[in-house]
Amino acid sequence: MTPSPGRYTPVAKALHWLLALGIIVSFCVGVYMSGLPFSPQRLKLYNWHKWAGVTILALSAIRLLWRLTHRPPADVPMPAWQRIAAHATHYLLYALFFAVPLVGWAYSSSAGFPIVLFGVLPLPDFVSPDKALSEMIKPWHGYLAYTMAALVVLHVAGALKHQFVDRDGLLSRMLPSGR
Q: For 6, left (φ over 0), alpha (ψ -120 to 50), or beta?
């Protein structure tokens, strides 16, 4: 299916919105669960968070492959500084799509807590169990996740600016309805 000029393909849109939903939910669950006392609920949320991270990692790989093999629509006319900021934000987001779950996986492995995807598929340890390494990695998962959250807010703010201030149709290129 060929998109109309200036629009993303349906596959690109689906991957964008699936990742957006997964990242937002995973971030919110991560913030919530980290404040819970040790309990069965906290353990369940940690497992769900890990499953979401692995799913985000897989979707990110698919999205990157799609992006590398399918040209995006031409840029909407905008000042050079905005184009540079938009491209930099996108590159950083793509890097964090991989870095956040991989650092989380490394933390979980180094802490000695394997990831069993959906409770049935054990994934290999990303690193060997090592308490010192675990303590060193732990804060980085959070730092990177908060950095990604800030970039998501910046990305959304930019899209809303184009929609409501510039009125240049940039947002409609990625809307699921295609309008």
A: left
pTM over 0.70: yes
Half-sphere exposure of 29 (CA within 13 A, CB side): 19
- 28: which 2 tokens? 């919110």
The region that residue 158 occupies, defined by phi over 0 for left and psi between -120 and 50 for alpha, beta otherwise, is alpha
The C-alpha atoms of residue 107 and residue 94 are separated, in whole angstroms, by: 20
Q: Is 174 exposed, middle or buried (0-12, 13-18, 19+ CB in 10 A)?
A: middle
Concatenated DSSP letters of 62-96: HHHHHHHHSPPPPPPP--HHHHHHHHHHHHHHHHH
Residue 86: count of CB within 10 angstroms of its CB = 19
Return the residue matching tokens 């939903």.
Answer: 21
In CATH, the number for domain 10-173 is 1.20.950.20
pLDDT digits (tens, 9 = 90+) for 75-84: 888 999 999 9
Domain definitions of the chain by residue range: 10-173
How many other C-beta atoms lie within 10 A of the C-beta of residue 130? 14
